Amino acid sequence: MKKNLRLVPFLKKIVECINRKDGYELSSMLNVKNIHSSQLMNQISDPKHAKDLCMSNLPLNWNETVYYHLRALYLYQNGNVIDAATEQCNCAQNFHRIFSDLDRWALPLHYIIHSDLYYLSALADKELAEKNEKATKLEDTARAINKAFTQCITDRRTPMTNSRKWGTYYIANLLFRTYFKLKSTNLCKNILRAIKVGDMPELENFPVAQQATFHYYCGLLNFLDEQYHEAGNHLLKAFRYIRGKSIKNELIILHLLIPIRLLSGVLPSKNLLNYHSSISETYSGMINAIHSGNVKEFEHCLRKQEKVLIRHNTYLTIEKCKLLCMRRLFKKVYIIEGMPTRMDVDSFRHALNFVAMNLDNDEVECLLAVMIEKGYIRGYISHEKRVVVLSASNAFPDITSISLA
Question: How many separate domains does the chain show?
Fold first, then answer.
């Protein structure tokens, strides 16, 4: 108990921070990963005995919030992340009661309580899964962070400079991360709808890091929905914001942007391919194959990089580029034959045979029909005569002019 009395200066400092509305200092003091946390643990023999000190030295609701933080910290420092996640969730839920009466100054603490909750819950679920037990900590976390998001975006206080709305994008990004971890990306649309009608300050007025993360998740959601044009716009903005700041994040974005650019008919420059060895290793072979129209080589490179592409969730997108590779080959045949308005299907079949793609005329007709339907080729097929009737002008339009939808 005497050891726990050493907590009193810590608790008094918390009261001082509350009184002077110092959210940054509070966020440092109540951070489970802070270097001071291990030092604080040396002052606690048992967090249960610290409860009375919290109750007698801290304001109402703050006392339980800090107590649950100390419980989470104690358990985390002693290797029990499962129970630590539970106590941190209790900490967050108690803080929600306080936060509804606070304004912008408390946002740093709001952030750290919920980011610590995500951190501990992710560790806890990993450990539970390894034990073949039901992993539900992140589900509880999602509900707590959703409450935190609502408390930010629904704040109606004026002036706006003091509003909790300034915490909306930080918490939204954390909620995106949680939903992606839970593979519940469909719930992300609820966040976007809320922001759209939330009478928010312009995104450009928020910290650059929050803008970059928000654009990244919007781009990723668009990418998964095959809305490639919108995805490309968001991801390009995110990349520009983080350029030169984090090679890891740059690569994550580039592994999404490059497939989008390829699908839109834009081959990456040598400078971009040489930006990092992993980019060059993954895409150079496929890009060369697309440029030359070598479908067999494209398939070979696709198989070779399959694991990498699956890891980045881009395999299916890159696979769609096979049709562009064939189109490149067909355009070469079209040019060699003098750009006629009528071409035998057999001419395209022979070209595919030349690159070791042994297809019959029906299969080639099917490929041509898909290209015409997508706008890659302008014309129509006469099935009876096995002839492709091509547009007299611009039979093979620029891919960049074609919608990616």
Answer: 2
Q: Please check the confidence at residue 404 and state whether its pLDDT lies above 70.
A: no
The closest alpha carbon to 30, from 83, 77, 91, 78, belongs to 91
Q: What is the pLDDT of residue 39?
A: 72
How high does pLDDT run on average in the chain?
92
Residue 313's domain comprises: 271-401
The mean pLDDT of 365-392, rounded to a whole number, is 93
| Shared domain check, 277 and 132 | no
In this structure, the answer to whether residues 187 and 275 fall within a common structural domain is no
Q: For the whole model, what pTM was predicted?
A: 0.90
> Would you tell me how many other CB atoms lie within 10 Å of the CB of residue 243?
12
Return the residue matching tokens 């990456």. 268
For strand 387-390 and strand 342-344, is the pairing parallel, antiparallel, or unpaired?
antiparallel
| Cβ–Cβ < 8 Å for 235, 198 | no
Neighbours of 158 (CB within 10 A): 8
Residues 66 and 155 in one domain: yes
Q: Which CATH number goes with the domain that contains 281?
A: 1.10.10.10
